[in-house]
């Protein structure tokens, strides 16, 4: 095996054109994956290639600086990263924000701009990790800036990596033996330990919670460390003989193979990330220079290096184009238009490099560190200001008068009020605006009352009046559909002096049988935690002497149950519920079950989005009754089988539907904040009607 040294003593790594070619491979995989995910389902591994390259280059740079100067100049290092990366990222965020306001339906604005702010401050990966465990946020579609998650991980690496290595440099040079070899070995030891710890954490956390693990920085640290170890172990020497060339091509093959074989179903990063990471390390270390055969020869050709030169800009621009282009023209989904879009992205990226990246990196006026940091702070503040202010300004300018909340034609009142109300076809703007309703998905008043999906402990949230002032105590049991009724139930409880104990959990229908699921890992544990929580809540309520009535509400779609150990239900999906209810009624409690609400989502478009797209014809967002209710409504079937006088079924269909149609806007109020959860506004408007139905059941005295 021959050696192709990259420079003089220790690590001295000048420009390596083959790395630019490797960047081209990485960004091409990511772009092709995002445009054609079914054809290159594992193209996301291109991000891991970038991580390894960054670890290799940055660690080599920091090592050379430490050998030369005896220290790491932290301020200068961060300043170079800011000048190199932040200006174009701010431009992309601002342009994307404008495009979102121009083309995306307004309900998508709040979610998008929340992530724009997270991207501007380089914490997007942590926002996405948090969303991965939030039941409502999990239902959201990807925003136009979601790709900033990997840039956030990179920036966090740039901040922390030199801080990690500085004590090592200081200790080595303080000992009086500051030769490069001693420093190299010390850094190898520290980074080897860090890489091992991060890889182990990545493996275990990916198995436990793959959705969060994908975005979490600690699960990716070992990938940067892998590149760092290559830089330190081989001291800049690249092997270029025949066997080395085979190893280099094998590395490229490993990267491409994982892009083809892996998919969104692959638990990643974990063990699965080893193959693309080791493949990248092999290419950094081994290759060939022979024309036509050498991997370095191919990666160093001008088309390949050109792609590497613009790879950062391509990565920044491509995802907003992928997300926004279908809203601009339906033809954006065809392969011909996608090819044109990719060509446009390449051209735009080249112009961005010439007009933004290169000038900002070289400009003398920004070179002094105080100015560099001021530019960074100003850019972050500007992006955040646009993200916070623009949606409200655009909405105010764009849309007109809304229905007055005092009107007899407002909300549910319009369905029952005499006179000339036009509850469905009214042409006034919704009040509150559709943007405010959509925001309830992210910012729910009663969110803290709902147990976390993986929360093992069963706790009650207390609403209504204080127990000592209460005339009755009620319990609410159910999933997020039950939580959605809290604006109405809390208002009723406060007015009628009821202490309300809330036992709700996202995605957890109250049933003491065992839920049928095909999930594994953390998702399976969430389901089993739901099962055990249901049994504990059932027992706790049955044994409580203070609870007078129990309210139940839950989604039924795509949920089935089987017998748990010791159970012998003929139909667990039904009897797992009725057995709970009978237990509560046998202990002297009334049971009131809310019927399932209609589902108004159409073609994966939620209600606020549909209303925003059809402001002049909201009837287009209505759904036929037969399509709005799930076929496997176990809750209704269970209710129909109970004849006890303490049992009451609260029909909800007529609260949303008239004749054969269920409506998205009633009396100027958007009824849902997504496709199946009642909006807080409409729920509050329904409080008087729901209270009247409780009175009819005999559980409330006449108000």
Question: Can you walk me through this structure?
Answer:
The chain is an alpha/beta fold. It folds into two domains: 3-389, no CATH class; 413-697, 3-Layer(aba) Sandwich (Rossmann fold). A hairpin with a 2-residue loop joins strand 15 and strand 16 (669-670). It starts with a strand and ends in a 6-residue tail after the last helix. It comes from Zhihengliuella flava. One of its GO terms (cellular component) is membrane. Residues 18-351 form the Acyltransferase domain.
Mean pLDDT: 88
Contiguous uncertain segments of 5+ residues:
1-12
**Total of domains:** 2
Helix content: 55-70%
The secondary-structure class comes to alpha/beta
Query: What is the count of β-strands?
Result: 16
**N/C terminus separation:** 91 Å
Radius of gyration, CA atoms, in whole angstroms = 30 Å
Question: What composes the largest sheet?
Answer: 7 strands, mixed
Q: How many helical elements? A: 28
Shape: elongated
The proportion of residues in beta strands is 5-15%
GO molecular function: acyltransferase activity, transferring groups other than amino-acyl groups
Protein name: Peptidoglycan/LPS O-acetylase OafA/YrhL
Organism: Zhihengliuella flava
Keywords: Membrane, Transmembrane, Transmembrane helix
